[in-house]
Design brief:
Length: about 600
């Protein structure tokens, strides 16, 4: 037993000595530019080593481990230390070229880290700018690291248009896309108008497509010179007008000033025979001469009167060259204005307007008459009942019955109602603005109608003064209209009153109602006429109340045909009856002696 123990001990010691002395080898891994998880592996002789995880290297594919230039077999027994080197294959990437309609470029395979070598594509009418990748500009010198699809970037071919402005304000050259036109480009040059562009001496059409670089030369036309001669010691002014422009287009010309004179206008000649036309087209160099006219001054002595309007205090001859200037009519409570006089005592002739012959400084004195019936001018506004040949405005029609016997009439002047009224009251006779056959309403008489202001203006006296008192005896012919619209009549009568006050603000009006008529052309019509006349009279009375005017109620003058010459017009008896009503109404309205 002891012998066996000794033998086992000797064996174990021998085994330990054998194994403890066995050689160990080191295998080193060179990743050759890549990354490996294992740097070395230790291995005993005759053993094999395990296969480590494949190394990695950007842009390369790992093939195998190489020993002494050959692929290493990991089943090989290790008998020495050595180094394994990673064997790599460089990756290649697809580069696809989308030329967007340009010349074809073949796709390429480019090794990792290398750059693209490619010629620029071409495309008719376009210029190659470069390549884009995912909408961003791509630099072809960038090393390749993945697959690419490159899109060609194009810009339209542009040609340079250079401008020779021939002394005008400089224009920078511009780029125009191939096939597009220049369009409207207008250069500027002081005191010149641009005519056109010239290309090689020929007129250039700016709508022509551009297909090459060109130089255009400006053609100019000198502007017309407009010389302003102010004639007041101010220096002349020179303006420049383009073809077809007028003085108005130039912004007009300020009116010059000259002490004691009024500027009249500019003229084309020094003799002032041809006035400047501000809208007339300028087609040559012109000279304009300022014309001045001496200012004449008017001094007023109102002698206690006042005016509602501004007085004319100065004028020039040109103001009265083709028309007269009406002077403002003053007013004075309790008095009638009787004109302007140059003599302080008013012993000279009066006047009411400035005419061409009064081209001088004037001092005027107002003349007044006490406002009595005897000093008042009485005017009439009427129709045929109030006419008399020779006593109505020229061109007005009179009723034949109312004329002297020499003219075939049967009523004398002194037998007319208005003449009896005027003489009995002691008034002065103004204008008898009566017109046979006329109406109040424009609808039935137009310019002769009493609501028309042109008809009413005939009531102004020849000395340009208004009537002091006016009797209105209108509406007879309106009432004869079948189916008269009385609302329209009221509107027209009101319009007549308003127009009279516009013309003669201080006039005293008396409104006359319609007198009796026996106009008979049929029972139905006659009955209608009676009703219409009554309604017309009601309207007149209502307006008299509204305007606070006195009524002369002619409707009460008579009521049967014994007062009529025919069915409408009064005879001598009727005239007297009408006058009595008028005299009574006016006398009651006024104090017997003064207004």
């Amino acid at each position: 037993m002891k012998k066996l123990y000794v033998l086992i001990s000797i064996f174990m010691c021998s085994l330990f000595l054998f194994t403890g002395c066995q050689k160990t080898y080191t295998i080193t891994f060179d990743a050759n530019g890549g990354i490996c998880e294992v740097d070395t592996i230790d291995c005993k002789k005759k053993d094999t080593i395990y296969v480590p995880s494949e190394p990695t290297r950007e842009g390369y594919t790992f093939l195998y481990w190489e020993k002494d230039g050959s692929q290493f077999d990991f089943n090989e027994a290790i008998t020495s230390s050595f180094t394994l080197v990673a064997k790599w294959e460089i990756q290649k990437y697809d580069v696809i070229f989308d030329t967007d309609g340009g010349t074809y470029i073949e796709d390429q395979k480019v090794e990792y880290g290398k750059t693209i070598q490619v010629d620029n594509p071409t495309k008719e009418g376009y210029e190659f700018v470069g390549w884009s990748l995912n909408g961003e500009i791509y630099d072809v010198s960038t090393p390749i690291k993945n697959n690419l699809i490159l899109l060609a970037i194009w810009t339209d071919v542009k040609y340079t248009v250079t401008f020779d402005v021939a002394g005008g304000d400089e224009l920078e050259p511009i780029k125009i896309k191939n096939g597009e036109s220049l369009g409207k480009i207008i250069p500027t040059k002081e005191h010149n108008s641009f005519v056109c562009w010239l290309l090689n001496g020929e007129v250039y059409d700016p709508t022509t497509p551009i297909t090459s670089n060109i130089t255009l030369v400006a053609s100019w036309k000198e502007d017309y010179k407009v010389t302003i001669h102010y004639n007041n010691n101010d220096p002349d002014l020179v303006l420049y007008a383009k073809e077809g422009q007028s003085i108005n287009d130039l912004g007009g010309i300020d009116s010059p000033i000259k002490e004691g004179y009024k500027f009249i206008n500019f003229y084309y000649d020094e003799e002032f025979t041809k006035a400047m036309l501000i809208f007339s087209k300028i087609n040559n160099d012109i000279d304009l001469y300022a014309k001045f006219s001496k200012i004449y001054y008017i001094t007023y002595h109102l002698n206690g009167g006042t005016t509602k309007e501004e007085l004319l205090t100065s004028y020039v001859v040109e103001d009265v060259e083709n028309r007269n200037i009406d002077l403002v009519l003053p007013e004075k409570k309790g008095y009638f204005f009787r004109g302007w006089h140059e003599k302080e005592d008013c012993s000279d002739s009066n006047f009411y307007m400035i005419t061409k012959k009064e081209a001088r400084d004037i001092t005027l004195f107002a003349k007044w008459d006490e406002a009595t019936l005897q000093n008042a001018y009485l005017g009439i506004l009427g129709d045929s009942i109030s006419t008399y040949k020779g006593y109505i405005p020229n061109g007005f029609v009179h009723f034949p019955y109312y004329a002297s016997s020499d003219d075939g009439g049967m009523i004398t002047l002194e037998q007319t109602w208005w003449r009896i009224t005027q003489q009995t009251l002691g008034c002065r006779l103004g204008i008898n603005n009566s017109y046979s056959g006329t109406c109040v309403m424009n609808e039935y008489g137009y310019t002769t109608s009493a609501e028309n202001i042109s008809r009413l203006q005939h009531s102004t006296r020849f000395d340009n003064l208004p009537p002091d008192i006016m009797i209105i005896y209108m509406g007879n012919n309106d009432a004869l209209v079948q189916n008269l619209n009385t609302a329209n009549f009221e509107k027209s009568y009101r319009n007549m009153l308003n127009n009279l006050y516009t013309l003669y603000p201080n006039i005293q009006l008396f409104l006359g109602t319609l007198s009796y008529e026996k106009y008979f052309v049929g029972k139905d019509y006659y009955e209608e006429h009676v009703l219409v006349t009554a309604e017309v009279n009601r309207i007149i009375q209502s307006l008299a109340s509204e305007y606070n005017l006195p009524i002369i109620d002619f409707a009460t003058a008579y009521s049967d045909s014994s007062y009529l010459f025919d069915t409408i017009h009064p005879n001598v008896l009727g005239m007297k009856a009408l006058a009595n009503v008028a005299i009574d109404a006016i006398s009651k309205f006024y104090n017997p002696t003064t207004i």
